[in-house]
Recover the amino acids of this structure.
């Protein structure tokens, strides 16, 4: 049996978790019941009306949030020549080619993003069993395989989030911190929604976004009224 924390018990008593709220109301609720032990992340979950088994309906991409994620993004870059210094100058934590493989293999070294230039993918591809399960494998669609290393690293540092639907057709990602202003949280959410809408499959019938919830690290999911995001 799943144990319900005291905080969640309070939330259950104070608000109706089956009710739909607009984004502004949801942000107010999340802030009201935030924990004081640490700064919680704000997560968004979207249930999409796609068939996850159809590759043409896979939703995958990346976007830069206007106000970032509120955390220090750790970046590893596979590249060569002068791009190694360019990556470092733009904020990469480590940059190189074969020499950084042992660092990536060490599970104690947690990185948020791995970026690679095309000329190093023959090296990176060998790390598939390690990077794949961590969701770190560079990909063209997310802009993590690129010739423009400097821009890619700079964008990642700003809060470039990557997302992909899971086997149930749900996209789940972090869109900021609870200590952001209401406006910053709202603008990050709007940017994310805008980008997701652009990826609607052309052959998809019915509603693309079926359900959306906002939650904090220690909080409950607040259902968003989809009419408020149109």
């Amino acid at each position: 049996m799943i144990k319900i924390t005291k905080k969640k018990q309070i939330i259950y008593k104070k608000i109706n978790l089956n009710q739909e709220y607009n984004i502004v109301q949801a942000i107010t609720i999340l802030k009201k019941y935030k924990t004081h032990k640490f700064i919680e992340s704000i997560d968004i979950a979207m249930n999409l009306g796609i068939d996850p088994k159809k590759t043409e309906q896979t939703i995958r991409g990346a976007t830069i949030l206007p106000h970032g994620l509120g955390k220090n993004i750790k970046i590893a870059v596979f590249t060569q020549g002068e791009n190694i210094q360019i990556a470092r100058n733009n904020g990469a934590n480590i940059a190189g080619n074969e020499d950084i493989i042992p660092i990536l293999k060490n599970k104690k070294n947690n990185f948020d993003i791995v970026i690679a230039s095309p000329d190093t993918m023959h090296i990176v591809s060998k790390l598939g069993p390690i990077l794949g399960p961590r969701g770190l494998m560079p990909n063209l669609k997310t802009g993590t395989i690129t010739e423009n290393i400097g821009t890619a690293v700079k964008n990642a540092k700003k809060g470039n989030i990557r997302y992909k639907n899971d086997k149930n057709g749900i996209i789940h990602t972090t869109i900021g911190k609870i200590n952001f202003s209401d406006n910053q949280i709202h603008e990050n959410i709007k940017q994310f929604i805008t980008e997701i809408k652009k990826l609607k499959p052309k052959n998809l019938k019915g509603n693309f976004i079926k359900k959306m919830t906002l939650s904090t690290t220690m909080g409950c999911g607040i259902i968003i009224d989809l009419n408020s995001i149109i």
Summary: The mean pLDDT is 90. The two ends are 38 Å apart (CA to CA).
